[in-house]
Write the structure tokens for this entry.
Amino acid sequence: MPTMADVARSAGVSVATVSHVLNGTRPVLPHTRQAVLDAVEELGYTPNGLARSLVTSRTRSIGLAVSAISNPYFTEILQGVESSALEHGYSLLIADPHDDPAHERKVVQLLHERRVDGVIVAPSAHPRELVAYLTRHAVPAVFLDRLVRTGADAGEREAPGFDQVCAENAEPTAGLVTHLASLGHRRIGLVAGLPGLSTTSERISGFRHGLAAAGLPHDERLVVHGDSSADGAERATASLLSLAVPPTALVTANNAMTIGALRALRERGLSVPGDMALCCFDDFDWADLFSPRLTAVAQPGRELGARAVRVLLDRLAEPDRPARTVRLPCTFVHRTSCGCPARPEKGTDT
């Protein structure tokens, strides 16, 4: 098996120069760097990752903690994280926090103990322990999909900010409401997510803004929490259908809750959109296979994952840079569950 000394002899440089090229620890002239890389390729040299991590204090690995990995939306995010990490020469360690604050802190600690260079986390609704751990141990971290209010936003002057990457939530939700209102609906219900999540609060805010923009009153009875799950949404939708004056249209705030809402409607023999118009936040591969095809807001899952990796690598390169929040636009996918006639599918950014 070739050694670093063999690479140095083949390239006509010192072992130290080879080390600097492979570990990025010091600038090297372009032609010298290329000579080293050519020698590595010719000899089939494989760097010793463990030894390199001892020298550089880096393992070139990233920890990813996201709940509900089986959810198609988070699967897309995972694919984006993985492809971007590999593109930049990083491996990926994955853990599922199960949206439980105590377990969340535990799995992030385990990732940290595995000496990952940084972590990407989709935080729970109550991430205080997580934030405390990351802050205490100065772990480079990016919050993904769900924002955590820190610093002045949370009224905690001593809490530092964190880099965060998420999709737009309020405006796309408002767009679903105004679309339904334009079709004549005056009682529109919202099946919202788990209380405490930023995605939940932002989509509720967007729902209210959409009602106001359409000149419709806000009725608290028409906003129910499906707790971001199919079972929770089935129960929440049933409660809406039990109202003396139920809604004529629904907005569901994630793809799992869309499934639960459809179950509740089916149990009562109600059709979509004949008896109930439906728009959903989150698109998924089989949304256009339903009958009717689901009108939805599509989030850029892969790009969110890839952007989170790039933001984390920027943090590793410049640890003292100001924290930033990156928001990516969503796309309105117009199908037929809203009650519109079939038309060629077109997506528009929102």
Observations:
- The first strand starts at residue 61 and ends at 65.
- The chain has twelve helices and 13 strands.
- The CA atoms of residues 97 and 107 lie 6 Å apart.
- Residues 152-159 have pLDDT under 50 and may be disordered.
